[in-house]
Q: What sequence folds into this?
């Protein structure tokens, strides 16, 4: 079942952090906030309407997360913390999981009395993690510290990029390998069918020579945060957004952040679709030249940091020659023909469900997952880094990522059958992500209907929209 909950059309202001609930509940005995907090109420209703611990709802001992895992379990909360600032004018409400959503999720996770609770993500390489936490969550974490509640906040990245006024400096190996597990899906990886020319795998801002170490025929390795693999429950808290490469970024896509180094994550293949790649549709000389320049830059980011910084500022100007001809100016796989990124994302979902603590795939799921989506302010257009805000009014909840994303994509006014990361999640495979089909998904709402369809990313327009009557309605 997927629950679509009316979360109103806005968040409490940052001045209201740590976002205490503004109304009393039988199970809550903490202080109340003076600022109205419809977000906390919406998360509570979403958990209740998943029928978690339904017999005790309305009693002081109601414990919805406790129905999923016993006391003493290890819980990881995985928000969408992609970047500390919107690269467009849209602000951060449509960019990242809002701290008020996380406050409510943490409260109910703590009621399950976990032995460990980690809130963590691996943002993009240039994200300033301290600035990201300053968007409300640091005040949430500090409040829990004053209550004596042991919550760990973790940046799962091993590599970051620090931008200066005249240079770009790459810092590597920030966390020891002991904090990760290498998980090799081998021939079962969804990347295997496109690995014959594995030298074409690329991820923006990373050395292309590193990718073949992780991905080649018969070898498909990911570097997964040890905290995630040791968890008994992962609560995935995605932001509802459209996405340039994947079409949408919801529960399935959000798992990119459980991997500690992006050089383990192929995002596209170098070259045009008509020449064996999937970075863009048709080859042009500016695009081909820029790809070669980017490869050179990323190979020398460590030994020529000043030159890297200069070239980083001027490299994309090559695409001016395509822009003046009215051609798409994207060389980061940001279009509907990207046949790589969805495979990588679904690989990570397989790992989350079936890899044991040492990173070995098992026959049965190894941990429980819960997905609580933040769609109060959604992101449309060229997400994930420069979305435009849309008051959307949804808080979503489900126990299966594929079901969640099918229902929410429909509510966004998009057709999940035309978005590979969604429709291919239902494929039959040795380690299935859904033991059912889309027709079996039960979608329940409290009468809320999103105000309008979301505008897809530029490279997806005309290729993923659904007709109006197919949208999810109350």
A:
């Amino acid at each position: 079942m997927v629950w679509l909950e009316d979360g109103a059309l806005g968040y409490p202001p940052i001045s209201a952090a740590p976002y205490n609930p503004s109304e009393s509940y039988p199970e809550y005995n903490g202080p109340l906030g003076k600022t109205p907090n419809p977000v906390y109420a919406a998360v509570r209703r979403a958990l209740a309407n998943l029928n978690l611990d339904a017999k005790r709802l309305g009693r002081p001992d109601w414990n919805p997360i406790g129905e999923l895992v016993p006391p003493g379990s290890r819980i990881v909360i995985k928000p969408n913390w992609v970047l500390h600032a919107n690269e467009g004018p849209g602000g951060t409400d449509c960019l990242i999981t809002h701290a008020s959503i996380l406050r409510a999720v943490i409260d109910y996770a703590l009621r399950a009395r976990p032995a460990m609770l980690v809130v963590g993500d691996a943002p993009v390489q240039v994200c300033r993690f301290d600035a990201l936490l300053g968007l409300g969550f640091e005040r949430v974490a500090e409040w829990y510290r004053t209550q004596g509640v042991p919550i760990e906040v973790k940046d799962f990245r091993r590599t970051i990029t620090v931008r200066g006024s005249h240079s770009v400096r790459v810092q590597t190996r920030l966390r020891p390998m002991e904090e990760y597990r290498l998980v090799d899906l081998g021939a079962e990886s969804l990347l295997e069918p496109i690995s014959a020319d594995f030298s074409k795998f690329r991820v923006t801002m990373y050395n292309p020579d590193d990718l073949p170490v992780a991905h080649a025929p018969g070898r498909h390795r990911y570097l997964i945060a040890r905290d995630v693999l040791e968890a008994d429950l992962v609560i995935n808290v995605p932001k509802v957004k459209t996405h340039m490469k994947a079409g949408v970024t919801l529960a399935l896509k959000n798992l990119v952040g459980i991997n500690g180094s992006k050089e383990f994550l192929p995002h596209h293949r170098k070259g045009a679709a008509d020449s064996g790649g999937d970075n863009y549709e048709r080859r042009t000389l500016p695009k081909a030249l820029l790809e070669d320049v980017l490869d050179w830059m990323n190979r020398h980011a460590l030994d020529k940091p000043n030159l890297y910084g200069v070239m980083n500022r001027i490299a994309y100007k090559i695409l001016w020659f395509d822009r003046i001809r009215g051609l798409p100016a994207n060389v980061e796989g940001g279009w509907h023909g990207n046949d790589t990124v969805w495979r990588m994302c679904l690989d990570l979902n397989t790992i989350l469900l079936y890899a044991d603590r040492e990173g070995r795939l098992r026959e049965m799921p190894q941990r429980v997952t819960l997905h609580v989506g933040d769609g109060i302010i959604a992101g449309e257009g060229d997400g994930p880094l420069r979305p435009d805000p849309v008051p959307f009014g949804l808080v979503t909840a489900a126990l299966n990522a594929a079901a969640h994303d099918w229902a929410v994509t429909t509510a966004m006014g998009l057709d999940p059958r035309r978005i590979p990361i969604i429709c291919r999640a239902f494929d039959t495979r040795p380690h299935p992500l859904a033991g059912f089909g889309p027709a079996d998904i039960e979608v329940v709402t409290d009468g809320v209907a999103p105000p309008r369809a979301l505008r897809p990313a530029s490279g997806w327009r005309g290729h993923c929209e659904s007709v109006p009557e197919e949208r999810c309605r109350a």
User: Anything to note?
Assistant: The first strand starts at residue 2 and ends at 6. The two ends are 15 Å apart (CA to CA). Confidence is low (pLDDT under 50) at residues 469-474. The first helix runs from residue 38 to 49.
